[in-house]
Amino acid sequence: MKKLKNDQILRTRFPERLCHWMIVLCFFLAATSGLSWFFPTFSWLSAFLGTPQMARALHPFLGIAVFVGLCYMFVRFVKYNLPAKTDAIWFRNVKGVVLNNHEHPLRIGKYNAGQKVLFWLIMASIIVLMISGLIMWRAYFAEFFPIPVLRLAILAHSVAGIGLILLILGHIYLAIWVRGSVTGMVTGYVSKAWARQHHDRWAEELEAKKAAKGRGEA
Fold this sequence. Notes:
mainly alpha, 9 helices, 3 strands, 68% helix, 4% strand
């Protein structure tokens, strides 16, 4: 049962919010250092971690931190990101969603169908990045693999890395586009009106739980 605070609904608890923002920081540093090697014109991005040598030393550990953080987020949120029959309604009305048209109820749970797709793509990308990154990690594991495997690992790591960066940029854009989303991830709370507008089925489920609890205490 989610605790209510005046007209606010607790959407994301503190441990998940803390983990989210730690992932943001670690991913930013890992992504910028990775881009600095992938695109020579972005070599200056490694300065976020100090020297290029320091960036190369810290990049793998930052990647591991992102992986561990996303594993925790997966455990906490996977149940909300499983496919549901009502997801089809969101896909049929995706144009209206993009245009911020809320005339028709979309029966959206805690996360909509687009967020679910993003969730699974991010999880798939980080698994590819983790496996390929370990294989090509010269300080510890690269010597155990033949050159063709290392080349494939570098290719997979590069493609998955660029893909994950694009997914995260899309995530940031959508969070800014839907007013109240960023505030919700900072404070943990969203308004009841926001919940009804963007996640109507989830809001109804919370109200039903509240009503059932009220009847039980009566």
